[in-house]
């Protein structure tokens, strides 16, 4: 069918085309089918949407991804991508071969799958899981389709946490310690997906985080480390597309976690990685047994990829730092580096750093590097290299001026601080978009509490968002306080 292509202003990540319903009927295509478009001897594929109003009969509306199509084009139905057949196999719980996973990864990278098809892939891996062999192949394929950083060093360190724990901002501290010890540690981090702050959101309070691969290499060459946003570079780009499909349902299959993490580390040129796996009530991994199984699989896949993986299994049943939200977490980082941060954040950072240093064959001790001020000096060096003010202190960072203090309504003991609710309240308050939004925690599990003692403070940059957060606080139990007798029953 001959049609006239014109670009339409319709936001879409996939190569979408709009057909008038009459033309679609004549072509014999349905919603989300594909059409092949020939223009000037060049073939393109578009995913079909119908419309009655946006394009007239005889016109093909093309989105920006297909903006090179202008004027007269030939349009015919196109078959489904081969990847869709393999996704159906996975939905039927059939183990996939490497070439089949490779085809799925390539089609995701090239945006050849519709949102429904990508959602089906995520559903299949969540429902039926990935075997160890599938996870190994998937990690390889995901690393292969993106860019890669090459380093001259035989040892390149890295650190990752699987997430799920509020205020767990150990990464800037670990990076500073390891870089100060003389090792390269090019840390690419994510922005928040369902949390109130990712490492990139927290660092953005202090400096730039979006850099090209060449700029990252220059920063690491100068300072031994970096703390940058992974989304600004093309390292394992399929991972970001899969995460977008997982986010609406908040699902994160273990095999996909491993493939996503290690494909990015492989692409970043990392050779020695410590992976933090928090477990407990409210964390992504709830049982110690599941955490141990995940750790073993991380190590097996790492061996397959030629990387040395050390896993730490840590308690994740409550937030780590005092602050939750970009500015509040940045304050905790600066305080800890200066010797006055939350004790749990300090201890966890030191433990992870020591394990990573030992894995890399470095005899330096994390506590000595931190207590001597060398880690703080290195952090300031990295901040300066990334365009920030190296002299900023925690006192310079001011959270949102609209506040809600939540106090205890009874005497008792704190038996639980709910990670998910802490994160939800902080996000309702505006985090991570509003850098000053979030929560300051005034208590921890095991603390003895009296009526009217402060439990936590919600910070917001607008009254409306604070009111939204306050409604959630009123409907839930973010911090659980029980009498001593009730607390004893809970522990039993």
Automatic annotation (TrEMBL):
UniProt KW Mitochondrion keyword: no
Segments forming domain Pyrimidine nucleoside phosphorylase C-terminal: 413-480
UniProt key word Glycosyltransferase: yes
UniProt KW keywords: Glycosyltransferase, Transferase
One annotated GO biological process: pyrimidine deoxyribonucleoside metabolic process
EC category: transferase
EC numbers on record: 2.4.2.57
Gene3D superfamilies in the cross-refs: 1.20.970.50, 2.40.40.20, Nucleoside phosphorylase/phosphoribosyltransferase catalytic domain, Pyrimidine nucleoside phosphorylase-like, C-terminal domain
GO molecular function, one term: 1,4-alpha-oligoglucan phosphorylase activity
InterPro entries in alphabetical order: AMP_phosphorylase (IPR017713), Glycosyl_Trfase_fam3 (IPR000312), Glycosyl_Trfase_fam3_N_dom (IPR017459), Glycosyl_Trfase_fam3_N_dom_sf (IPR036320), Nuc_phospho_transferase (IPR035902), PYNP-like_C_sf (IPR036566), PYNP_C (IPR013102), Pyrmidine_PPase_CS (IPR017872)
UniProt xrefs under SUPFAM superfamilies: Nucleoside phosphorylase/phosphoribosyltransferase catalytic domain, Nucleoside phosphorylase/phosphoribosyltransferase N-terminal domain, Pyrimidine nucleoside phosphorylase C-terminal domain
A GO term from the CC aspect: cytosol
Domain of life: Archaea
Pfam families, A to Z: Glycos_trans_3N, Glycos_transf_3, PYNP_C
NCBIfam families named among the record's database cross-references: AMP_phos (TIGR03327), ARCH_P_rylase (TIGR02645), PRK04350.1 (NF003338)
Protein name: AMP phosphorylase
Organism: Halogranum rubrum
Taxonomic placement: Archaea, Methanobacteriati, Methanobacteriota, Stenosarchaea group, Halobacteria
